[in-house]
Amino acid sequence: MSLKNCPECGKVYLDNPAEMCPDCYRREEEDADKVAEFLREHPRSHIDEVHQATGVKHKIILRMIRKGRIVGDVNIVYPCESCGRPIAEGRVCEECGRKILSQIKPAEKPAPEKREDQAKKNSGMFTTKF
Ligand SMILES: [Zn+2]
Ligand SMILES: [Zn+2]
User: Fold this and answer.
1) pTM for the whole structure
2) How far, in Å, from the CA of 19 to the mean position of ligand 2?
3) 37 partner at 20 to 30 Å CA-CA among 63, 86, 104, 116?
């Protein structure tokens, strides 16, 4: 058991799986209900619309998405973490996802080297034969 500072209100609380104090946890539960209710009537809303309609902070809405609290037939659109384009799943859009992947994975060996070899071989054949 350890004491932590609540990331929401800064109050000291006893560490728990929700990772926030009981007051904020209860408030987040209420916020989650509000967001879920709004999305039932307005599926595929942008996160800004949800925020304006419910007053729930973007941070909290995004956290609920990541925790899988908002699932099923409800599709919330929120900005890509990399370019800000609206997306409906994951943390970044498809394009940024591809970019990130290509940065992690080393590029495949380029072909030109091979083509050069081939050309040398061909010209070599020509010069020795004729
Ligand atoms: Zn708190
Ligand atoms: Zn993006």
Assistant:
1) 0.59
2) 29
3) 86
**Model confidence pLDDT, tens digit, residues 22-54:** 999 999 899 999 998 998 888 888 888 999 999
Contact by Cβ (8 Å): 60, 28:
yes
Helical (H) or strand (E) element with 53: helix 47-54
Q: Which two tokens stand for residue 127?
A: 């010069």
Does pLDDT of 74 surpass 70? no
Phi, psi (5° rounding) for residue 92? Answer: -130, 160
Cβ neighbours of residue 97 under 8 Å, at least 6 residues apart? 90
Measured torsion, CA atoms of residues 20, 26, 32, 33, in degrees rounded to the nearest 10 = 170
